[in-house]
Every structure is written in structure tokens, then in C-alpha cells.
Amino acid sequence: MIDFLRNVPLFSNLNDNQLTSISNICTKKAFRSGTVLFQEKEPGSVFYIVFSGSVKIYNTAVTGEEKILSLFKKGDSFGELSLIDGKPRSASAQTLEDSMLISLDAHNFLGLLQQNFDISLCIMRELCNRLRDTNQHVYDLTFLDARTRVIKSLIKLANKNGVRSGNVITIKMMLNYDEVSQMAGVQKPILMQVIRDFQEKEIIRFDGPELKLDLAKLRG
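Below the sequence we write its predicted C-alpha cells.
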């Protein structure tokens, strides 16, 4: 646990004694794919760190349509916002595959922030990064055409979840087409049109559950 926590960005500046204190108040639990960890507007009581697997953060419209806000994988943390401001969850969270998560309850999490300025500073930086991402997404929806939004979403998935070898990035596709279209803010037929076009130009190809993105051909 300590070796894992040492590689979590929030805890990277802490010494072994601090990491040991954190490991003593952490709980590790397995969740099946598709498990809803918490829902939008419910009280927040737990802070999570992804030990393995992946989690999507999303909002649900009154029509039932989902909008994916973020994807989190190993080492990423989420769920801190409602613990800090005491307000209900601003979004829902669901596992995309069988996952192992580390959790801290609200009391222990807030005590951790009070005792460790380094962690508080990292939390603030992470919240600032997410605010910048939100601002960028609003800009994209306002000024970019649908095709460009699809391309940008695929590149974002590649950068965050892909493994690069030369000019080719391999992405384990945790999202289905409906979820990718929600993330890009486009209708599914437009997404499929872009994907078919990319396949014809050999920019992307599918290898089982993986997608391979050729950056050289994308730039060309």
C-alpha cells in the first residue's frame, strides 16, 4: 500500500511516516464493472483513489442522457469536492471495468488535509486543473465543429489512457460508442462517420478491445 501511495500524485511529496499514517486509515475494496459508486446530488462521505481499473464521472440530464465529464485510472483520485464544501455530489461515478479502489471516509480525509499542507496544496491544484478542463470543454462546445470535437476527444483518451510506441498509441477502449459521443458532445452518427473516415485513412484501427491511433497519419 505504501509503495502505491508514494506514486499517487497527491501523496508524492510525503515521507514514509506520513504515508504509513495514510495507509492506516485507507480501505481497499473491489468493485465489479458497472458499479455506481455515488450519484449526483446525494451527500458525499467518501474520497476515492483508483488502485486498478477505471471510473467515469458523469452528469445525467432529466431526459436520462448522460454526459461524461472525466475518466480516472490507476493513481487518480476523485470525490473530494463534496467532502470539502459539504454540499451534495456534483456528479455521479461508475466503474467502467472490474476495479480496485482505495477509500477514505470524510472524517479521515478532512483530518488528513488539516495535518498535511502538501496534500491540501495538491488537492487545490487538482481542482484548478479540473476547472481549466471545464472551461476548455465549454469553449470546445461553443466554437469547435462536431468533427473537431471527436478528434480532440480521441486524442484526449489517447493521452490519458494510451500506451505509446513510436507514432502509434494503443488505447484500451473502456468506453462504448455512446459514451465517446457523450464525451465529445456530438451525436452518435457523427462519431461513427468520423471513425469510418479515420479507418479508411488508416489513422485508427481496432485490434480486439484496443484502438490504435497513428499520430503520423493523423498529422498528415
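The radius of gyration is 19 Å.
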